[in-house]
Every structure is written in structure tokens, then in C-alpha cells.
Amino acid sequence: VRSDTLVALRDGLAPFFAAEPEYDVKAVKKHLKLGKAALLPSLADALAEVEPFTAEPLEAAADAWLAANETELKKVGQPIRVSLTGRAVSPPLYDTMEILGREKTVSRLRAAPEIAEKIRAENP
User: Fold this and answer.
1) Distance between CA atoms of 11 and 25, rounded to whole angstroms?
2) Which end of the chain has the lower number of beta carbons within 10 A, N or C?
3) Beta-strand (E) ranges in 47-117?
4) pTM
5) Contact call for residues 31 and 79 (beta carbons, < 8 A)
6) Which of helix, strand or coil describes residue 22?
7) How far is CA 75 from the centre of its chain?
8) End-to-end Cα spacing for the chain
């Protein structure tokens, strides 16, 4: 996490320690579109059993999932990032997943459609 101040560092690290990230409404509305969010629970399923739960095997499993779903990371990378951290900026995706750990990564990806719908309903 790049930071110029201790406050920025604290804010940048918050998603890694919180049970659930604080979602940036603008990031959710821009990047976590309902159609893309609907794909993320199946990515969670693909990642749930990855061993070891580290960046390289996670990337390989995600690449296989992308191929099976005939999509590209550039189309779902930001929705993944927002579902994991609540924001549009984070460390690299697979490093973020490794740091978050299996439980948080999988649960946040599975919750993506509900989060996208809830935030849109609360912020029309």
C-alpha cells in the first residue's frame, strides 16, 4: 500500500483487517456492475480450494476460470478489486487475495452481487 501519510497508510490497510470492507459508493457504482458482480461467486468457487493460497496458484486458478468463462481479467479485474477491498485501488489482485486469506477472499467474492445490489438501492 503506497501512502504519503500515516493516515493514508491506515486507510489503505483497513480492508485487510476489517471483517467487511467499507465500500466506496462511487467505486461500486462504476466498477461493480450487476452483470459482472454475478460472475464473482463462481470465481470464489474456483479459488476456494487453491493450495497453497498464495499469489501464483491463485493467478493460475483465476486464469483457468477466466478461460472457462470466456472473459479477460481486464473486464473483471476492477469488479474483483472492489469486491475484495471496497475500493478501486489496491495492491495487485493476487497479492491482495493472499493477504486477505481464503476466508475473506471467498466470502467477499460470493457477496459481490448482494453488495452491488444493496449499494445501488441505497444510493440511486
Assistant:
1) 16
2) C
3) none
4) 0.88
5) yes
6) coil
7) 13
8) 31
